[in-house]
Design brief:
The protein is an alpha/beta fold and 246 residues long. α2 (90-100) crosses α3 (105-113), α2 runs parallel beside α4 (134-146) and α6 (192-198) crosses α7. The protein is globular. The strands form two sheets. The chain has a six-stranded mixed beta sheet with strand order 6-7-8-3-9-10, sandwiched between helices. The chain has a four-stranded antiparallel beta sheet with strand order 2-1-4-5, with helices on one face. The model has no long low-confidence stretch (mean pLDDT 91). It has helices at residues 40-48, 90-100, 105-113, 134-146, 164-180, 192-198, 227-245; strands at residues 2-11, 14-24, 28-33, 56-63, 66-67, 75-78, 152-156, 184-188, 201-206, 211-217. β4 (56-63) and β5 (66-67) form a beta hairpin. The protein contains seven helices and ten strands. The structure holds adenosine-5'-triphosphate. Adenosine-5'-triphosphate binds next to α1. It holds the Pfam family ABC_tran. Belongs to the ABC transporter superfamily. It comes from Rhodalgimonas zhirmunskyi.
């Protein structure tokens, strides 16, 4: 579905990401892990079309074999910071992606409002971002991304600010929604439990320069995952990360 070929990202003379290629399939949730600073966010930002202007990227991408440039209407992106507009209410922020995509304001409102209870945001539709907790803000940003009809989802540490129970709830919610409506999802996370529980594939990045060093499939359906099998995969991932950070 989405294919990246030979992506290199430079900051002046420094190479941040080098010659990175990957393919994301529809109906697949891929987690991207790697040490801090290895270039995970830079890759995702490039795919979202929001790479900082001082960075220079070379590389190509296709969707279903057709060359694309970013930003692209088939791609929805949740950045690491919630980036809610402080002058818009929670509901208005959550509607933004839909409205930019051309949806009528009332229809966008109805679609996001239906999801407020599942996101623990009910009663906060008219609150402004500075009236929300960090976790609520992150859920509002997640909502803004997930309601879009985009075929590709890019989620950069979408649950990092959530408490443990809410995080588990949102992880399950996302896995269920992706099962109902397959998309190609790429999720950056530092949490190996989250990665092995949710993903059907984990990509490992190394730094200096940023590159992919492993592609680990997790072929089991999430309902059938045994703790023993997942613990084995986590140990393998942990060893890789330790090697990359030592
Ligand atoms: N605008 C920029 N100009 C110069 N260097 C940058 C810029 N943005 C990021 N970098 C550098 O690029 C490298 C990769 O950063 P990036 O945010 O992609 O890493 P990351 O793997 O997502 O890290 P983390 O896990 O901590 O979020 C880092 O060394 C960072 O300092």
């Amino acid at each position: 579905m989405l294919e990246v070929q030979a992506l290199t990202i430079r900051a002046g003379a420094d190479t941040l990401v080098k010659d990175l290629s990957l393919r994301l399939e529809e109906g697949s949730l891929t987690c991207l892990i790697g040490p801090s600073g290895c270039g995970k966010s830079s890759l995702v930002k490039w795919l979202a079309g929001v790479l900082a202007p001082d960075l220079h990227a070379e590389g190509a991408a296709t969707i279903d074999g057709t060359p694309v440039t970013f930003p692209h209407r088939d791609i929805a992106y949740q950045p690491q910071q919630d980036t809610l507009f402080p002058w818009l209410t929670t509901a208005e922020n959550a509607c933004l992606g839909l409205e930019i995509g051309g949806m009528d304001r009332r229809a966008a409102r109805d679609r996001v409002k239906a999801l407020f209870p599942a996101f623990g945001l009910e009663g906060h539709e008219e609150s402004f971002p500075d009236q929300l907790s960090g976790g609520m803000r992150q859920r509002a940003a997640f909502l803004r991304t997930i309601v879009q009809d985009a075929r590709v989802l890019l989620l950069d540490e979408p649950f990092s600010a959530l408490d443990a129970v809410t995080r588990l709830h949102m992880q399950d919610w996302l896995v269920e929604r992706l099962a109902e409506r397959p998309r190609a999802a790429l999720m950056v996370t530092h949490d190996l439990f989250e990665a092995t529980q949710m993903a059907d594939r984990v990509l490992v990045m190394a730094s200096g320069p940023g590159r992919l060093v492993a592609d680990i499939p997790i072929p089991m359906p999430s309902a059938e995952r045994s703790e023993t099998a997942l613990a084995e995969i986590r140990s393998k991932l942990k060893l890789m990360l330790l090697k990359e950070t030592s």
